[in-house]
Design a protein that fits this description.
Number of domains: 2
Radius of gyration: 23 Å
CATH superfamily of the largest domain: Class I glutamine amidotransferase (GATase) domain
Number of strands: 13
Largest sheet: 9 strands, mixed
CATH class of the largest domain: Alpha Beta
Order of helices and strands: EHEHEEHEEEEEHHEHEHEHHEH
CATH architecture of the largest domain: 3-Layer(aba) Sandwich
CATH topology of the largest domain: Rossmann fold
Length: 345
């Protein structure tokens, strides 16, 4: 990224993480999601303008709950904690977090202190989405209360000196009235100039790829999904005919979708495309398998085997290309905790 201004989003396995990133970008600031256990050294290297802690299904007082190094609070970087993120800030700053007497789930009227810069431009009440069982019982040292509900006495906290804030509700969702304004206010607190947009990001990415690859050859594994398709188009814009895509048609796409993928990449983008019709091969491997996780592993393994076989026919290439969506990036970087009984999110 030519523009180093970015917001770092620490992922605590919340259900709205991608939406948080989207809301930040809608405010013309680049955002990047990273695992919660990203090291302090790496955060310093990235040098974000601000950090957002996401929600998550854990309780901060549980054994093996996802944590951060307390040193993150001394970096001088503004922080916003959402739901579990609020509880984590409180817990690590010597506040107390307990299981609430009543779980709050749904749109709730929140009393807010509109003198706080986080709530600039709001009235003293706002409808917000709550999804939690745990709550902050006592304020952490150096913080003041800036929001509450009838069942959650501390629904928002602020340390204006350190520019650290937390809310128990979810400002990123549509159920929270003018929630994006809260995110926008946080970006103002961070001092963001808001000069990022998707079109410039694409231009910079294509330029960077062209400079890195030059006249060398690249081979891309294409499944027809969003992640590999975006990677293929970006590479094609950068290196043109030096890119070859192997489209492994496993027969599991929607009706006629394989033909549509081929048509788009051959006719619309004029990409060098090799289509491998492997429907029978995949379906025979999946015969009799009912467990979804086993199916996923079989499909992934077979996709790699087919791709490797076709790649050997092409010969030497300089770069192998894989498109990966954010959830897969996070999942490969940290062990994800899965829970059907969400305490906070």
């Amino acid at each position: 990224m030519k523009n180093n201004e970015k917001i770092l989003i620490l992922d605590f396995y919340g259900q709205y993480n991608q939406l948080i990133a989207r809301r930040v970008r809608e405010c013309n600031v680049y955002s990047e999601i990273v695992p919660f256990n990203t090291s302090i050294e790496k955060i310093k290297e990235i040098a974000p303008k601000g950090i957002i802690f996401t929600g998550g299904p854990s309780s901060v007082y549980e054994e093996n709950a996802p944590m951060v190094d307390k040193e993150i609070f001394n970096l001088g970087i503004p922080i916003l904690g959402i739901c579990y993120g609020l509880q984590l800030i409180s817990y690590l700053s010597d506040g107390t977090v307990e299981r609430g007497e009543k779980r709050e789930y749904g749109t709730t009227e929140v009393n807010i202190d509109n003198t706080s810069p986080l709530f600039a431009g709001f009235s003293n009440k706002n409808d917000c989405l709550m999804t939690h069982t745990d709550l902050v019982k006592t304020l952490p040292s150096g913080f003041k209360k800036i929001a509450s509900t009838s069942h959650c006495p501390i629904a928002g906290i602020a340390n204006d000196d350190k520019k650290i804030y937390g809310v128990q509700f979810h400002p990123e969702v549509n159920h929270t009235k003018d929630g994006i304004k809260i995110i926008s206010n946080f970006l103002d607190i961070c001092g963001c100039t808001r000069d990022w947009n998707m079109s410039s990001f694409v231009e910079e990415t294509v330029k960077s790829l062209r400079e890195k690859i030059g006249n060398k050859k690249a081979l891309c594994a294409l499944s027809g999904g969003v992640d590999s398709s975006v990677a293929a188009v970006l590479l094609h814009k950068a290196i043109g005919k030096n890119l070859t895509c192997i489209f492994v048609d496993h027969g599991l796409l929607r009706k006629n979708e394989g033909d549509e993928v081929e048509k788009v990449f051959r006719e619309q983008y004029d990409i060098n495309l090799i289509r491998v019709n492997a429907k029978d091969r995949f379906l025979s491997k999946l015969a009799g398998i009912t467990d979804p996780e086993k199916k996923r592993k079989i499909i992934g393994e077979e996709f790699i085997r087919v791709f490797e076989e076709e790649a050997k026919k092409i010969g030497k290439v300089d770069f192998l290309v894989q498109g990966t969506i954010y959830p897969d990036v996070i999942e490969s970087g940290a062990s994800r905790k899965r829970s059907n009984n969400k305490k906070s999110s």
